[in-house]
Amino acid sequence: MKCNAGFVGFDGTENKRTLLATAEVKKAAGIDGDLNVLLRKPHGRARSIMAKFNRLYGVKAYLSDMALKDKWQAAGVTIEGGYDDFFSASDFIMVGTPGDQELPYLEAGLANDCFVSLMGGADRPGLLKGLEENKKVKITEELKADFAREFFFGLENYQMFLNAKPKLVQCTSCNTTGLSRLALAARPLGLTAVLGNIDRRHGDPHTVVKASPSAIQFGKGAGHQGTDAGTIFEEVNFSIRASKVPTTVPHTNFLNLVFKGDVTASQLVEQYAKTREVVVMPYQDEGKKHDWTSEILEAFLSGIERPISPEIFELIVSDAIIPFRLGDYTILQTVSMVEQMSIAVPNHVESYLLSAGYPADDVHSLVDKTLGIMHGIWPDKLSC
User: Fold this and answer.
1) Are 303 and 358 in the same domain?
2) Which residues contact 50 (CB under 8 A, 6 or more apart)?
3) What's the Rg (C-alpha) of the chain?
4) Mean pLDDT for each consecutive 10-residue tract of the chain (384 residues)?
5) Least crowded by CB within 10 Å, which of 192, 221, 256, 375?
6) Record's Gene3D superfamilies (predicted)?
C-alpha cells in the first residue's frame, strides 16, 4: 500500500500536528509514500517547523512561488518542484488554510485526481459554487455527492465513507469533534437532544487578539457545531450557542444532554469511560477539587508521554454532572473540555487512512495506540 500525503498550510495550528501524527500512523500501518508540503514565504515559524519535520521524518518541499526558491534553499531546504508539481506528486491532500482560502487548493487537488480532506471550518456549498463558476474541474454526480455527504467523523462513519469511495471529505471541527464524541458516548443511553453553550476561546495561546478580560461575545443563534454534528447523528437534536470568552485553551462546553426515561449520572460516566478518545476527570480527588480548566489541562499533560509531543487529543469530561428530571425525560448537565489545537487531529489522520483504503476493522485502535490516545477515568484507569 502506498499513499503520498500532501499538506497545504503545513505550519498551521492543526495541520502541523496532523502531519506529525500522520507520519507516525502511516509508519505503523506499513503504508509507503512521501510526506509533501507546499511552502509559501520563508518566515521563521515556517523554517523552524520545516527543520523539525526533516529532523524527525524527512519531507519533500514544493513551492507556491518559485521566485522564493533561493531564499528557501539558503535556509537549507531542498525544493522538489513548484505548485503544480506538489499536487501531481500527492495522492492525499490535507487543506489546512484559513476558512476562506481553500478553493484554489481544492481545485488543484481535484484536477490532479487527489483525495482532498477539508478541515471543519470550510464552507462546502461556497466551495462547490466556486468550482462551478471557475469551470476548471468537472462536477460529476459523484463529486456532488461528496459535497452533500455528512461530516467525516471516523469513530462513527468510517465504514460508510470507505464504502462510498469519496474523493472529498470534510472532517469535523474541534468543537464538532467534541460534540460527536459526547453523542457517541451518550447514544446507548437513549440520547435525544443536546442543548447548551460552547465557550470558545478568543484565540490560541500564540494568537494576538483584541479582547477585554471582562467581555464575552455571545452568538445570536445556534452555531454550526451542533448542525454539523447533526449530519452524523441524525437521531439526536442539537441546539448549541457558541460564545467567545477571554481565554486561550480550552474550549469549555456547558451542555445539557436530554434522555428519554431515567438515566443516572453514574451511567453517563460509565459510557464516557468506555468511549474512545474520551477521558473522565474526577471532580473530587482525595480532598482536592479539579474545578479549574487550566489546572485540569496541566494535571493531564503532566502525566502522559506521546510519540510526538504532549498534545491533548482526548475530550476531557468532568464527572460533576447535575441531573434534572422533567416529566418523562432526564436532563444531565455536563461540562467538557476541548483542546482545540489537537482534538481533531486523530480524525484528520483517519481521513488519510480512508484515502489509502485502510480497512475499518482496526483503524481506530491503530490510531489510538500509535498516538497514545486514551480513554477511561484519569489518572490510573486509562487505556488505548
Assistant:
1) no
2) 11, 37, 39, 59, 61, 75, 77
3) 21
4) 94 88 96 96 91 92 96 94 98 92 97 97 96 96 97 98 98 96 98 93 66 77 90 97 81 96 98 98 94 91 74 96 97 95 96 98 97 95 94
5) 221
6) Dihydrodipicolinate Reductase, domain 2
Residues 304 and 188 placed together within one structural domain of the fold: yes
66-72's contacts with Cβ under 8 Å and 24+ in sequence apart are 68/39, 68/40, 68/41, 68/42, 71/42, 72/39, 72/42
| Together in a domain, 140 and 195 | no
Report yes or no on 378 lying in a domain.
Answer: no
Distance, in Å, from the CA atom of 305 to the CA atom of 173, rounded to the nearest integer, reads 25
Q: What is the CATH number of the domain that holds 363?
A: 3.40.50.720
What interhelical angle do 224-232 and 174-186 show, nearest 10? 50
Give the pLDDT confidence score for residue 3 in this predicted structure.
98
User: Quick check: bond before 250 cis, omega within 30?
Assistant: yes
Residues 322 and 292 in one domain: yes
Q: Which domain holds residue 322?
A: 174-343
Do 156 and 196 lie in one domain? The reply is no
**Predicted model pTM:** 0.95
- Tell me how far the alpha carbon of residue 39 is from its chain's centroid: 22
With contact defined as beta carbons under 8 Å apart, do 313 and 341 qualify?
Answer: no
pLDDT tens, residue by residue, 190-208: 999 999 999 877 666 666 6
Query: CA dist 315 to 22, 174, 182, 353, Å?
Result: 20, 10, 9, 22
Q: Are residues 46 and 107 in the same domain?
A: yes
The total domain count for the chain is 2
Terminal-residue alpha carbon distance, the chain: 25
Cα distance between residue 384 and residue 372, in whole Å: 6
Residue 261 falls within a domain, yes or no?
Answer: yes
Residues in the chain: 384
219 and 165 within one domain: no
pLDDT tens for 35-45 read 999 999 999 98
